[in-house]
Amino acid sequence: MYLSCSTCVYGDLDLRDALDRIDGLGFGAFDLFALENMGQVWPSRLAAGDLDSAAIAHTIRESGLRVSSFNCGFSRALNDPDRSARNQVEAEFRALVELAASVECSVFTVQTGGYDNTIGRVESFDRALEGLQRLVSIGHGSGIPLSFEPHWGAVVEKPADALYMVKRLWPGVGITYDPSHFVMQTDIGSLTDTEPLLEYSVHVHVRNASPGKMQVSMDEGVVDFAWLVRSLQERGYEGAVAIEYLESAESEAVKLRDELISLGVPT
């Protein structure tokens, strides 16, 4: 297990400056926030050739930081029933695979998409599952594991749904576990209720949260980081624990860094 930091902490900076800041805080690894309209690398622009993949790779290698994950959010939902959406997602993922392989990325994290009322809950879920299977085929040969995130608002936001999904796909697809998305849901009990998901987790995101709020300060949040670190240690987890405070939250990221180090997560 090792500590990492997402470039989303510095969403208002370009990639080089964000990596310089992450390195300056003592991290040895980072997550690339590659979400459409949010991160430093927008998948649609990468696929269209509007972003220089070679230049991005050079910036990453020059930083000397390990790439713990690409956190990918496509310009269209993975489970969008439209054929053009499927083609667009697959083109964006191919571009991300090429970039990720060139910088020895450790894990792909992708979003499944939410429920589409036009096709219903069951088909929304099944299309997400099928979409993940297609991405596995596209990424085959890169050697980079694929995972989905049980994100609030997604078809897998509930622990039982995420568990059902991953059991259908494991070991080809794992989970990126983020306790904030469970803590914020007021109808989910203790984090211990989500513990079965850790058996399939290949990557971890962390920030503090409280019921009804996905991100709050370290002083206000209720995420039990001691339980999380202990549970990961008991399972021999060897992946990253990546701090994912969103934009302009360096001070909170530093507080969480120090908390995780005190709990035994090495940088």
Q: What is the number of helical segments per DSSP (H or I, 4+ residues)?
A: 9
Taking strands numbered 1, 2, ... along the chain, how are they ordered across the largest sheet?
A: 1-2-3-4-5-6-7-8
Q: What fold name stands as the CATH topology?
A: TIM Barrel
CATH superfamily: Divalent-metal-dependent TIM barrel enzymes
The tally of beta strands, per DSSP, is: 8
Give me the CATH architecture, please.
Alpha-Beta Barrel
In sequence order, what are the helices and strands, one letter per element? Answer: EHEHHEHEHEHEHEHEH
Largest sheet data: 8 strands, parallel, barrel
Q: Tell me, briefly, the overall form.
A: globular
List low-confidence stretches: none
Strand content: 15-25%
CATH class term: Alpha Beta
Cα-to-Cα separation, first versus last residue: 9 Å
Give the proportion of residues in helices: 25-40%
**Total number of distinct structural domains:** 1
Structural class by secondary-structure content:
alpha/beta
* Rg value: 17 Å
Mean pLDDT: 96
